[in-house]
Predict the 3D structure of the following.
Amino acid sequence: MATEEKKKELLEKLRNAVIQYDEDTAKEAANEALSTGMEANDAIFNGLVSGMVEVGRMFEAQEYFVPELLMCADALYAGLDILKPHVKQLDLGVKGSVVIGTVEGDVHDIGKNIVKMMFDVAGFTVYDLGRDVPLDKFVAEQLRTDSDLVCLSAMMTTTMTGMKKVIDDLRTKNPNVKIMIGGAPVSQDVADKYGADGYAKDATNALKDAINMVASLKKMKDEVEAKKAK
Amino acid sequence: MKTSLKRELLDHGATVVGIAGLNGYLSGEISHLDRAVSIGVDRRLNEETLALLMKLQKRVVRFLKARGHKALAIPPDSDRRKDTFISKLYSLFNHKMAATSAGLGWIGKNGLLISPSHGPRLSLVTVLTDARLRPDEPIEHCLCGQCVLCIDHCPSRAITGATWSRSAPFVELVRLAECRSHKTTKRQTTGKPNCGLCINVCPYGRTKGYQDQVP
């Protein structure tokens, strides 16, 4: 079993590999983590993801630009590919599926891609519709895949209004689905006004909220089924 | 810093190394990385060329990062993973443009980078960086002169005979459809797509025959 000190050192190594966009080190550290018996979950969330959170901050502060961001994401996936098979599904408490996309008229998908990555990391099944997605498609895809969660992204105030339509449509067709929105012009006020279940300031918050939402949804389903069984 | 970087690369198997200043030549996404380390490796080193290029590239990245600079490695054209996030940006960049800007050579009539010492026989990789390396003098014009050996030897008559100039707008040097269809035919008849006559006959950097024809 890994000592606390060794564990801390490895987490730091995973984190820095992502920040320094160093795929080789990410792989090396991931293998080391496994061979010292560290929990894969721990390595992913407190190592790789913690690094990506810092990268997100650097991107916002304009210390990093698009190429660095993409290389960091590649480093994260390099480590993730090694660690993921060892993740104990139960550890996350909840598994879910999510439909995600940037709404019609909007081609900005970097934020959406990072949120998508967080869901990937957490073991969600992700249906990525991409960017500039026709509004009807969100509803159709949610019904087709019976996803627990729909995530909408918009980068512009002009396209943001499309979210309201999607939310209304989803509510009519499937009142139980959870909806989360994000993007530069979006705020908690907007989320409340549009009737979304959640608003995420950034990718890590998106993931936390999503896990909570899916958990409450699953609980609801279980209760319904328990009643049926009686 | 520039000298020690060059020294290190040449010591580890690079044939030629140049620094390009690309301010104003890059598209927005990568424009903050406006210096390019352009590395050429003699292709006669055959199968090991690719491994060597990758090794040199990693060396540059380590060198620059250790000194607190950003580095974006663009892999050789022949070996690109398509499944990474960063691979979406590779198409924004051209190794030959960096090589001419770094003074490693010019674009010959056959559309390939021609180095004065090694002709069209270099394989290229580039590392983009924000480190303030002093750029080398670019090569501005085609130095092929009156030589038309590649045009005469081209089995598919794909070479137009136009000449390249760094500042001039794009001109078609090679009719790619013709060149490609010839390679397809070759593959069907001989099992290999290789043609490469325009490389073989180029007098620049050639070790036997034709050298006396260097213009």
Summary: The mean pLDDT of chain A is 83.
